[in-house]
C-alpha cells in the first residue's frame, strides 16, 4: 500500500499506561479505583427526565437550534449570578458555556499557547489537562505548592498561565489553603500571568466550609476584569453526560475563547444548556448535593479505614477533606507504581500510577485511589487486593 | 495595569467581515440570507420531546454518564450500517461520534497538521473549516475543481489531506460529478493523501438521485481501510442543537481522532447520542426528509426566480440542485463584495462575500446567498434590496 502522510508530531508521544487502562476495562470482576467517575445513584433521573422533556417541548428554539457560541444568554446570566460574591460582580460578558470542563482546557491551550511557551502547572497535574494541551506543544514549569519556600511570583513570571486545582486537586486531593490562594492571586496580579482555577470538585467539601474561590479573591469591586480564569463543570454536580461546563473570566479572555470555540464545536448542545439552566433555576443541583456528600463522605471513610488496616506499613497518605481521591506515596522507593498497576490488574484491582500526572512520565512514587464510584465493601476488597499486589511487586523488585 | 501575556499568534489573524456579521444580527428588520441555518419549522418537536424524555428515563446510563470517547457502541453500529453499501462493509471501528460536524474538522486539524503543512482545499472553501484549522497554522493549496485541466494527482501530492464538499459545496452549491469523484478517489489511492469528504448537505438533493459517496467509491470489498475520511452531521438532517456528527474512516484514522477527541471534550453528550440513535432506529430522520426537501426546493425556486428578475444584469449564477446556497458572481469586477456587504446592511439585507471563503481573504467577486431560512416572500424582498444595494455599490465605485 502507498504510504500515508504522518500524523501530527504530538500524537507519537503516546502513553503506554493509558493503553493499559483501556484494556483494564475488559477484565471481569476488576475493582476499578483508577477513574474519577461519579456514582450513577447520585443522578436524579426522574427530575432530569422531566427537564429533558420540558426543554424540547417548551423551548425548542433553545434546545434544537445552534446556540450562540458563548452559550444561551439566560444560562450565562444564571452562572454569573451563582458565582458573584459580595465584592465580585459578574456579568454575562464574563461567562462562556463550554462542552464539559475538558473543552475549557482545550480552548485555553488554543488561545494561550504557541509551541515552546511555558505553562506553570500545579504538580502533580491533572492528566486530562496535559492531554488537552499536548497538541499545542507547551513546556511545563512544575509548581509544588506544598514545598517549603514555594515562591508564587517566581513560579508565574514569564508563564502564559498558571494551572491550579485548589479544591481537592486531581490527583492529590490536596486543598490549597486561604493564605496560598491569596499569594497566588497576588502573584498573578503582580506578573500579569493568567491564573487558571480549575474547580470540578468545588462542591465536594465533606468536612468543613468551602474556602473562598481565587476568582473572588481577585475581585476589585467593579466589573470583573481580573487575572483569574475560573473553570466549572456540571459533571460532578449533576451528571457528566450532559457535557456542560463554564469559564468565568475577564471579557478579553472570554472573547478569545469564543473565537476558539467557534472553530472547535460551534456551540454547546442547546438541549443540555436548557436542562442545566432549569436545573439551576429549580434548585435541583442544590437539592441533590447533601445526599451526594453523605455518600462520598462514607466511602472516603471506608477507604481510608481499610488503607489504615492493610496499607499502613507500605504507604503514606493524608485523609482528603473533599473531592474524589486519596493520594498514597510508597514508603519504599523500590515499590514502582507503573509496575504496581500491572501486578494489581492480575490481582483484580486498578489504581492510577503517578507517572501519568507528570508531563515527563518520571514520577513513579505514588498512586491515586478513587473512592466515589465503588460501594464501601468493594473499596475494602480493592484495598485488600492492592496490599497483596504491592507486596508481590516489592518482592519482585527485591528479587531483581 | 500590568501587561498580560500575548494570545496565541493565530488569534491576531482575525477577520473584519466576521465582526460585521456579528453586528448585523442586531439590525431590526434585516433580511439575513448570510448564514447557513435550517428552518426551525422542519424540526419534529413532539417526536423529539418524546425521544428526549425516553433517553433519560429508559437509558440513564447512556444519557447521563460519560459516553465512551468513540461514541455509544449502538450508535456507532447504527451509523456503520446506514452508510454501508454493496461493496462497502463498515464496522464499529470505522466510526467516531463527534460533537457536531465542526468538531470533526477541528480533530482532523489536530491529528494531521503541523505548522506549515499543506491542506489541499476545494476553492472557495467552507469558512468554518478554515476557522477550525487556523490554530494549526496550515498552508493552503486551492483546488479549483471546475477549472479545465484540474489534475487531482498533482493537487493531492504532498498534501496532508484534501478537503472537499462534493454535495452542494459551501459556499458554491456546486455538485461534484461522478467522474470527478472517481478521479479524486483514484488520486488519493495513488498518492496516499487522505481525502476528506465533508457531507453536511448529502440528504438535500432537490432534483435528482444522490450520487455515490466517495467513501463508497473508495471501498475495496473487505473491511474498510480506504483513504476517504467521511464527515456527516445530524444538524441539517434533524436539528443542530443536539450537536451530533460522525466520522467514517479507516480504523487507523479513527484511533488518532479518538486520542484528539479525548483532549477536546472527552465525549459527546450521551443524551444527544441516545436521541440520535433512537431517531435513526425509529425512522424519524427518514420521515421528516420529504417535507424538508419540498420546503427548501420551493425556496430555492423563489430565490432564483427573484434573482432572474432583479439581478440578472449584475450577476451570473447556476441554479443549485441541492444544498442551501446560491453562489452569484458579479459581472463587473468593479462591484466589490466586501463593500456590498456593508452597503447591503444599510439597505436591510445581508449576504456573505466571497472573501471569507478564501484563506487569503482576496476573492471579492462573488456572494453566497442562503435560501433555507427565509420564507419565499422574504427571499424576494431580500433580492430586491440586494439589487438596490448592488447598484448603489457600483455607482459609488464608479464615482471613486
State the secondary-structure class of chain A: alpha/beta
Number of strands of chain A: 13
| Uncertain ranges of chain A | none
Find the CATH topology of the largest domain in chain A.
Aspartate Aminotransferase, domain 2
Strand content of chain A: 5-15%
Tally of contiguous helical segments of chain A: 14
CATH architecture of the largest domain in chain A: 3-Layer(aba) Sandwich
Q: Radius of gyration of chain A in whole Å, from Cα?
A: 21 Å
- Report how far apart the termini of chain A are: 44 Å
- What count of domains describes the coordinates of chain A? 2
Q: Which chains share the greatest interface?
A: A-B, 80 and 80 residues
Strand line-up of the largest beta sheet of chain A: 2-8-7-6-5-3-4
Short synopsis of the structure:
By secondary structure, chain A is an alpha/beta fold. The first copy, chain A, has helices at residues 16-24, 45-58, 60-64, 73-83, 100-112, 127-133, 152-156, 178-191, 214-217, 251-262, 270-281, 284-311, 337-346, 376-399; strands at 31-32, 95-98, 118-122, 139-143, 161-164, 194-198, 228-233, 245-248, 315-317, 325-330, 349-350, 352-353, 366-370.
Describe the structure.
The structure is a homodimer of 400-residue chains. With 400 residues, chain A is of the alpha/beta class. Chain A folds into two domains: 9-38 and 287-399, Aspartate Aminotransferase, domain 1; 45-282, Aspartate Aminotransferase, domain 2, CATH 3.40.640.10. Chain A is built from 14 helices and 13 strands. Chain A has helices at 16-24, 45-58, 60-64, 73-83, 100-112, 127-133, 152-156, 178-191, 214-217, 251-262, 270-281, 284-311, 337-346, 376-399; strands at 31-32, 95-98, 118-122, 139-143, 161-164, 194-198, 228-233, 245-248, 315-317, 325-330, 349-350, 352-353, 366-370. In chain A, the strands form three sheets. A seven-stranded mixed sheet of chain A has the order 2-8-7-6-5-3-4, sandwiched between helices. Chain A has a four-stranded antiparallel sheet with strand order 9-10-13-12, covered by helices on one side. Chain A has a two-stranded parallel sheet with strand order 1-11. In chain A, strand 5 (161-164), helix 8 and strand 6 (194-198) form a beta-alpha-beta unit. The longest helix of chain A has 28 residues, at 284-311. The interface between A and B is large, with 80 and 80 residues.
